[in-house]
Amino acid sequence: MKINWYPGHMKKTKELLQDQLGLVDIVIEILDARIPCSSQNPQILKIISNKKSLIILNKSDLADESITVEWLNSFRKQNKTAIAVNSIDKKTASKVMLQLQHLYQEKAEQLKKRGRNPRPVRVMIVGVPNVGKSTLINLLAGKKRAQTGDKPGITKGKQWIKIHSTIELLDTPGILWPKFEDELVGIRLAQTGAIKDEILDIEELGLKLLEDLLLLYPQSIQKRYGNFASKEPIDVMKEIALNRGCVLRGFEIDFLRVSNILLDEFRGGKLGRMTLEKPSE
To answer: Which GO MF terms are attached to this record (predicted)?
Structure first.
């Protein structure tokens, strides 16, 4: 599956990050807890390398809890501050604020020594499309300040948002990179909805997802769709299609429809809490 995805606004976003980085104290990098490796943009890592940063594993309510713990431990071993959150949980706001205050404490003390009152912490939020940046901002602000949606590419330009007297946030559009050196990275991003479905082969994507889930979470698939006579992914997909009524005229399998069902139910957590990547891999 070849994925080419680098629209003009993403090039502008990369330039925006570079231009605005000098204005901020801390960078929040939001990753998808189901694919922490694939959702970490290598270009962003280069740009923010010298800044204090907070890694947020978002959508942790959809991810395998035990593997999320492995990821948090992995980041901590790299001396990186990382937390797992669900950006629609109200408790998340206080959890993030506490980490930001801790990261800013050293700079605040330096300002006090110079006889200056600490100013609000300036925070930049970055991440791939559809990872939940705007949802997190609205949660922190306590009201809708950033536009949200379930499709990638909602945020189009930078937005400075004052949370309260101590924190100012810079929201940025989701940014991917020009070429996925590892084809699996592109597939993982597509499976979780970071790339628009319109540019993909949905049937191939759905079959690949089913193949992965039969390997990683076979019991969850059986619980959702029933037991299968075959273990081959294509045959299992046919059985799911028949069970869900995804049949065209002449009893031909509607692979597009069943693929969309698989992708939608995975993305929505209906198949259970699942993570597609481990730190050990």
So the answer is: GTP binding; GTPase activity
Is 58 part of any known ligand binding site? yes
The reply, when asked if residue 135 is annotated as ligand binding, is yes
* Each residue's pLDDT tens digit, 221-271: 999 999 888 889 999 999 999 999 999 988 899 999 999 999 999 999 999
Annotation-wise, does 25 bind a ligand?
no
User: Please, which residues have CB within 8 angstroms of residue 184's CB and are 6 or more apart in sequence?
Assistant: 38
Choose among 203, 141, 134: nearest CA to 171: 134
Up-side HSE of residue 103: CA atoms within 13 Å toward CB? 25
Q: What is the DSSP letter of 198?
A: G
Q: CA-to-CA distance for 6 and 3, rounded, in angstroms? A: 10
3-state secondary structure of 224: helix
Is 74 marked within a binding site? no
d(CA 95, CA 82): 11
pTM (2 decimals)?
0.84
The larger pLDDT score, comparing residue 32 to residue 145, is at 32
Residue 212 in marked binding region: no
Binding residue per annotation — 59? yes
Per-residue pLDDT tens over the stretch 153-191 = 434 445 678 877 778 888 776 666 555 567 788 889 889
Ligand-binding site membership of 134 (annotated): yes
Annotated binding-site residue? 131:
yes
Residue 61 annotated as part of some ligand binding site: yes
60 among the known binding-site residues? yes
Contact between residue 275 and residue 63 where contact means Cβ atoms under 8 Å apart: yes
